[in-house]
Write a structure and sequence with these properties.
Number of strands: 29
Number of helices: 23
Structural class: alpha/beta
Length: 699
Amino acid sequence: MSELPAPVPEVSTHCPYCALQCGTRLHGDADVGVKVSPADFPVNRGRLCQKGWTAADVLHTADRLTRPLVRGPDGRLRPASWDTALDIVARGLRVLRDRHGPDALAVLGGGGLTNEKAYLLGKFARLALGTSQIDYNGRFCMSSAAAAGNAAFGLDRGLPFPVTDLRDADTVLLAGANVAETMPPLLQHLDRARLIVVDPRRTATAERAALHLQPVPGTDLTLAFGLLHIAVAEGLVDREYVHERTAGFDTAARRAGAWWPERVEEITGVPASAQRRAVRMLAEARGAYVLTGRGAEQHSKGTDTVAAFINLALALGLPGRTGSGYGCLTGQGNGQGGREHGQKADQLPGYRSLTDPAARAHVAGVWGVPPDTLPGPGRSAYELLDALGRADGPKALLVLGSNPAVSAPHAAHVTGRLAALDLLVVADFVPSETARMADVVLPVTQWAEEEGTLTNLEGRVLRRRALLPPPPPVRSDLRVLHDLAVRLGEPGDRYPTDPRAVFEELRAASRGGRADYSGITYDRLDAGEALYWPCPDTPDAPHPGTPRLFLDRFAHPDGRARFADLDHRAPAEETGPAFPLYATTGRVLAHYQSGAQTRRVAELTDAVPEPFVQVHPDTAARCGLADRGLARVVSARGGMTARVRTDATMRLDTVFVPFHFPDEGRANLFTHPALDPRSGMPEFKVCAVRLAPLSGVTP
């Protein structure tokens, strides 16, 4: 885009994509167009990735939703007025609730929703609908690390330190994180560090590493056991730290004792010498960090895998020290705040537990209802989707900020469950694959058209600011929830439509919780204060926030971190004669999540226009595949079509497929729905597949 004429509107805000939440400036308006430029914000320091530079293109995509759509008797979606659409939704919800009870109604939120939307959505589900059936797509992203972090530290914040602390690290271990493609501006904070990358693929991040550990998919847990074994056997454990600041070390060390390096090598394929080198690099560093990403977390044993890497970090004395630590690289834009304020199946605002009587009483008091009227915990995201339309499951689903037709595992099965609903309602700004299945589609605002807050991966609360008014007659998600609640008999003032008013209520609801936002205000954020939660509302001077957690004590009552007592577990599915290869999935630089936004940006679709399967040339030859030819990737659950990309750095037993594409290009047609028993995370990162050539078909 050429330079815009001056003067034009301008605003400081943040990128709509990943949890790094790079600072941006927006210039322009609806007439001349919008231009994005990077801000000198700490996490991105004047840099953006390709998605960030092109983010404004989605604002005016040709198929932008601007009018409500209602499915008619002929099965087609047709424009309708807001009153007509909302009346249809409210009437359908009332009928189903009266006939089957409140849990016949369900809600699926998203990790990209602002804090205000996530908060009001949870309140709407539990009061206006009266249902326990609410969860969000962050269950597919951060839940394993959250469960492990809460167990180890008594608190879950992705990074318990600012991103900028990483600049002084000597060594950083990245377990299952390809930051060179998923959040490129983060790399500048890792320039000094020697990187140890744990990943089955030779990713762009692994190319920069001093040491690449390339395990068999699904064996990260075993590898982490082995690394702890080496730390103990070679006398590299920080005994003083372990004695003074932790509990449970002896049991964890005894468990790890069975996993000597050569045994670990047999299972993982990682040479024993490389295992030893990795531990020594961490132990000998003046400042070291262990960071996990989706590659370690998106498993049916993801919580245990993250906990095993936390065990390693604790043994080396890293967490709770300036210049060292453990952290999780949160994925979605508000993946952190989105799981703190009530759209998760088992949580209330402030990261409170829905089963805690004191938590229920506090939040019910803020909401002005008796505590016993609040429903209990509901199903996790995949369990919720799997139950749709069944005799004992929800009959109606309201979706905000999510595209489960593409993003959920066992996708053909999930779209079948969506089709079985009596009522599917989707609020979105583009016709996503899930929206196209809906009975009612409600057009809502985009990021540059709305105010609010988000919480980035380091626990810093940020202001989203609007540059443009939404196109008429688009409404905000807050307005949609208000209008539906009123139609369902709720008092209108219980559901504010002004984000600032919602945030003021969120402050009160979070007061005293683990994620305490009560001392954070729009005025303080607008004044440029860097506020990290917990930030309580203190009676004297304003609380400065907590950029670094755990420096004095961990959040358990005794102040000690907990080593996890873990045992070995294999993946839910092993390879065999029928399905001889491991498949793993992930992101590519040009696209984001289900691709609903990035597939509408010409520059990004030109970069990666179609699904592909990355495979070693020898493996491709054995399967009868040619580079740039077409293939079917098939598991016991189904298959997808992809373009073959041969890559000599791939393991011979492993293929990789990105998950950003729809229809027959959905990677989640073959992924496994096995769930982590503690987090509800599906087994996205490993399953057994076979490859077969395909001709005459376009993906």
